[in-house]
Automatic annotation (TrEMBL):
<protein>
    <submittedName>
        <fullName>Uncharacterized protein</fullName>
    </submittedName>
</protein>
């Protein structure tokens, strides 16, 4: 007796074997949790996705910048929804529904692809391979909301990336508004917290009173420590990476802390369609966190430091220096490198900019050492003022 035959006529040969290994009874999850769609259900899903993307308020606007929309719509042409993860699921506050969907992509036909939600744009689809084992392995890092396992501890997340987004003025909003914008992105969980907490204060699986009371606890959980750089942290929707937005002197920085997941095919596609994507992003960033990063233009600290070192950037030296300082965050060695770059300049005005940065960063040792070397009277006075108790 042959394998069960899948209805899709343009299928690759591997599809029948994958269907046989993973499909359950009609409308029921198979062994890997996927519910395969009938031909009618697939067409309905495809029509729904395309009608949604055609609206002016389409999810593409939330997922990815406008310059990539044409490429995303082109990649959706002919894509076939094949299976879903069953019941619709939501984030921890039940504000965002997500519907993981398995697609076939005629433009990339050698394997299947997982979208963490059916409206996730194709450049953010996860390669799923051709077998039941590869499909299960591809989705395994993102299975958390379907289990009762705890989210990973924030302090235990081993990798981090920091990206300068721009000033509050450039982003057209104050910090509170920017934080709410991140809270509304499809790639983030809806429950944020402030610098008062080193760890996520929200329950992993709020239910009942905890769920109803989340709105009342929001101001308390978003509280800031006096003197700290204002920061708001959220989880990514499925893997539990942390997304932190901070504003040092109105210079806004995005930090992603995550456990690595290899998706080598995703970043090259994003880089091709998004010229403004921050340079040097790691290829092991999970796709739910990468979806947040891909929504913005920005710079990492190394690129900003090169701008500081570039003589042609002198008119913007103070701006780039402050952006670099904000992006370096708690990296003391990197901050010392930045301050040394300013401290070694012949131009006393440029040295003075470095002293302002050091004062802002409360880097007293650098200021003391600079005072011993400085010869320009105005800078000497500024240094003494910065060093006063």
């Amino acid at each position: 007796m042959g394998l069960p035959s899948h209805w899709w006529k343009d299928q690759k040969p591997f599809l029948d074997a994958l269907f046989a290994d993973t499909a359950g009874d009609s409308g029921q999850p198979g062994k890997t949790g996927w519910v395969w769609l009938s031909e009618h259900e697939s067409r309905e899903a495809s029509a729904r996705i395309h009608s949604t993307e055609a609206r002016d308020d389409a999810p593409l606007e939330a997922w990815i910048p406008a310059e990539a929309h044409e490429a995303c719509l082109g990649m959706l042409e002919g894509a076939v929804p094949l299976a879903t993860r069953g019941d619709l699921r939501a984030d921890r506050w039940m504000r965002k529904i997500h519907n993981p969907t398995l697609f076939a992509d005629p433009a990339r036909p050698d394997q299947l692809w997982i979208a963490l939600h059916e409206t996730t744009p194709p450049p953010l689809w996860i390669p799923a391979g051709t077998t039941a084992a590869s499909l299960a392995a591809a989705f395994a890092p993102y299975i958390w909301p379907e289990t009762q396992d705890p989210l990973p501890a924030v302090v235990g997340l081993p990798r981090s990336v920091r990206i300068f987004l721009g000033t509050e003025t450039e982003m057209g909003a104050d910090f509170e508004t920017i934080a709410r914008f991140f809270q509304g992105l499809p790639g983030t969980d809806s429950l944020p917290w402030g610098t008062r907490f080193a760890e996520d204060p929200w329950p992993d699986h709020p239910t009942g009173i905890a769920l109803v009371g989340a709105g009342y606890r929001m101001p308390e959980n978003m509280a800031q420590v006096d003197g700290a750089v204002p920061s708001i942290t959220l989880r990514s929707r499925r893997l539990g990476a942390t997304i932190t937005i901070s504003s040092m002197g109105k210079f806004c920085v995005l930090e992603v802390r995550y456990a690595p997941v290899a998706h080598e095919s995703i970043l090259p596609v994003l880089t091709q369609i998004l010229p403004g994507l921050p340079k040097g992003l790691p290829s092991d960033m999970p796709v739910d966190a990468l979806a947040v990063v891909a929504r913005f233009r920005g710079y990492q600290a190394d690129e900003l430091l090169e701008m500081v070192r570039n003589p042609e950037e002198t008119p913007s030296l103070g701006y780039h220096g402050m952006a670099c300082l904000a992006t370096m965050g708690d990296d003391g060695a990197a901050v010392r490198t930045l301050l040394a770059e300013f401290g070694g300049r012949e131009d006393p005005r440029q040295r003075g900019l470095g002293y302002q940065l050091a004062s802002f960063a409360r880097h007293k040792r650098f200021l003391h050492e600079a005072l011993l070397r400085e010869t320009e009277a105005g800078n000497i006075e500024d240094l003494r003022r910065a060093l006063r108790p």
